[in-house]
Amino acid sequence: MPPLSAYRLLRTISLPALLAVGILHAAAQASPTVPTSPQPDCNGIRDLAFVAHMDDDLLFMNPDIDEAIQAGGCVRTVYLTASERNEGADYMRNRESAVRAAYAFMAGLPDDWIADTVQVGAYRLAGFTLRANPRIQLWHMRLTDPWLGKGWGSLTPLSRAESIPGHTVETLEEQPQSYTRASLIDTLASIIRDYDPTTVRRMDDTIAIAYTELCWRCPGHDHPDHIASARLTREAMMIAPGVYDGIGYVAYPTQEYASNLSQAQITRKTEVFRRYAWVDYRYCRGPENCHQPVGPSESWVRSTYQLPRNDQNIAARQ
């Protein structure tokens, strides 16, 4: 594998931190045509990220995705869940608008997107391509994702499908689609093969705590959707090997760690997240009187922790 470019510079987790965690908005315009494959001029960067929720990428993977965009790379982010928190399709669409606003800001371009339905095997995904820069694409699987409250309490639909044989998860659509664990992995693997990435980003699949024992803000704990999405992505990487760099990211536990970004990176990451928060009405209703990020999100924008790199590239070595 060629040497990593500067934008992929690893920020590794300190040994004490590893031990502490057990290793560790505009509406889219519809168009009948959309470039759903990577554009040929990607400047050597074909960045593919899989996350559970709208905002996971902004809080836990940035500044890496932002830096790939700044370098003129092709970037596709795939959101597995609808992230609707019991508020239905309206809130799902609100959050989708919010991430589009954030990505348009990262690209320094108008928040103007081409919408289309993307076919991946037997499944339909919602796809959005930034009109002024078709290298940037956001895809949504829209798996139902009811909010579980302050304590997780039970399995999410995604983590249930990931962990319990025979269980399925449906999409939040007028004509719902149903995924099994195997079809989830196959769909993610098909996306990887089609995109021919140089980097595949995922969340942290190494949390060993059982889903039903996870809790909000407990040290070393994470969201079950984060873990399930990462486990599924990891398995998809195993059956879709290639010459790409696989990178996993610590999520909620980073609030327990020291800041490891420069002040310039923190300021930029904060401004990107604020563009999201201005649209997501559970955070803010526009920039006026919006104090985000606060609380845990303030901690999350100050750090980005990758899993140890020697645990990343198994798929690339097959």
From TrEMBL:
Segments passing through the bilayer: none
Gene Ontology MF: a single term: hydrolase activity, acting on carbon-nitrogen (but not peptide) bonds, in linear amides
Gene3D superfamilies: LmbE-like
Keyword vocabulary terms for this entry: Signal
Pfam families found in the cross-reference section: PIG-L
Signal peptide: 1-26
Source domain of life: Bacteria
InterPro entries: GlcNAc_PI_deacetylase-related, LmbE-like_dom_sf
PANTHER family xrefs: N-ACETYLGLUCOSAMINYL-PHOSPHATIDYLINOSITOL DE-N-ACETYLASE (PTHR12993:SF11), N-ACETYLGLUCOSAMINYL-PHOSPHATIDYLINOSITOL DE-N-ACETYLASE-RELATED (PTHR12993)
Protein name: GlcNAc-PI de-N-acetylase
Record organism: Paracandidimonas soli
